[in-house]
Amino acid sequence: MKAENIGSNFDDFLQEEGLLDEANAVAIKRVIAWQDRSGDESAEAYEVSDGKKNAHQPRRAEPFAR
Q1: Half-sphere exposure of residue 44, counting CA atoms within 13 Å on the CB side?
Q2: Does 16 have pLDDT greater than 90?
Q3: d(Cα 56, Cα 43) in Å, to the nearest integer?
Q4: How do 48-49 and 52-53 pair as beta strands?
Q5: pLDDT for residue 32 is more than 90
Q6: Residue 54: which residues within 8 A CB-CB, separation 6 or more?
Q7: Which of 2, 3, 45, 53 is the most buried (most CB within 10 A)?
Q8: Model-level pTM?
Q9: CB contact at 8 A, 21 and 30
């Protein structure tokens, strides 16, 4: 038996409640902040010291941390 989705999707629900635009704006801001943090950590991992790459690994960014 194949399972099928029942009802509408979450975007439809948010639209009906008048929250879709706000939810999208928050999501975009979180992704941009996550990308900024992720980029900073990547740059730190590849700093050159005495001609060699640093051995430490960057911390993993949490995309939804507040």
Answers
A1: 11
A2: yes
A3: 12
A4: antiparallel
A5: yes
A6: 44, 45, 46, 47
A7: 45
A8: 0.50
A9: no
Nearest partner of 63 among 25, 21, 35, judged by Cα: 35
Contact 47, 57 (CB under 8 A): no
List the one residue out of 61, 43, 65, 63 whose CA is nearest residue 53: 43
Residue count (the chain): 66
Tokens 């948010």 belong to residue: 14
Q: Where are the alpha helices (DSSP H) in 1-66?
A: 10-16, 20-45
How is residue 34 written in tokens? Answer: 């996550």
The residue with tokens 């929250």 is 19
